[in-house]
């Protein structure tokens, strides 16, 4: 098995799941995309809900431990939080390791409507990054 892009985060709950959804949307079948976490839990329901608002279905996604990919050839590793960047294991096949930290949108301390607003903001920031990432990685190779 080969994965073109593996996105890592602490819990594989919000940021990495949204990044996986956006990258799959922008790359289509041109890239194999997966995500995992250092301490996976579950896909955050608010993350799934705000992604559904823009037509991206995360209902089939599950949180996976990065060990799932220990024996997988990975071309590009992207860490989307600082703790994942610090603890990121070495993937011998990876030709690129990229760190792009996004603020954690999992804010249970906030009232629900504010939690949704924070998650939407993260969704939109990740979308902008993902679009540019795919353009650089895939479309740059097409020319």
Q: Using the 3D structure, state the CATH architecture.
A: 3-Layer(aba) Sandwich
Number of strands: 4
Query: Within the largest sheet, what's the order of strands?
Result: 2-1-3-4
Query: Can you identify the CATH class?
Result: Alpha Beta
Helix and strand string, N-terminal first? EHEHEHEH
Helix content: 40-55%
Q: How would you describe the shape? A: globular
Overall pLDDT level = 92
Number of domains: 1
| Uncertain residue ranges | none
CATH superfamily: Response regulator
Per DSSP, what share of the residues sits in E-state strands of 2 or more residues? 15-25%
Could you walk me through the main structural features you see in this protein, from its secondary elements to its overall organization?
The chain is an alpha/beta fold. It has one domain: Response regulator (Rossmann fold). 41% of the residues lie in helices and 17% in strands. It has helices spanning 15-27, 45-53, 82-87, 112-142, and strands spanning 2-9, 33-37, 73-79, 96-99. It has a 4-stranded parallel β-sheet. Helix 1 (15-27) runs parallel beside helix 4 (112-142) and helix 2 packs across helix 4. The mean pLDDT is 92.
Describe the SSE topology.
Layout lengths: L1 E8 L5 H13 L5 E5 L7 H9 L19 E7 L2 H6 L8 E4 L12 H31 L1
Parallel strand pairs: 1-2, 1-3, 3-4
Helix pairs in contact: 1-4, 2-4
């Amino acid at each position: 098995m080969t994965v073109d892009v593996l996105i890592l985060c602490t819990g594989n709950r919000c940021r990495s799941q949204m990044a996986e959804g956006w990258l799959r949307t922008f790359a289509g079948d041109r890239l194999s995309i997966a995500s995992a976490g250092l301490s996976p839990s579950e896909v955050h329901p608010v993350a799934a809900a705000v992604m559904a608002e823009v037509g991206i279905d995360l209902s089939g996604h599950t949180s996976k431990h990065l060990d799932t990919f220990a024996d997988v050839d990975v071309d590009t590793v992207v860490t989307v939080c600082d703790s994942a960047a610090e603890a990121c294991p070495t993937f011998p096949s990876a030709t690129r390791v990229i760190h792009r930290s996004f603020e954690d949108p999992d804010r249970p301390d906030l009232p629900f409507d504010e939690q949704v607003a924070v998650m939407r903001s993260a969704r939109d920031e990740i979308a902008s990054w993902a679009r540019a990432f795919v353009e650089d990685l895939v479309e740059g190779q097409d020319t």
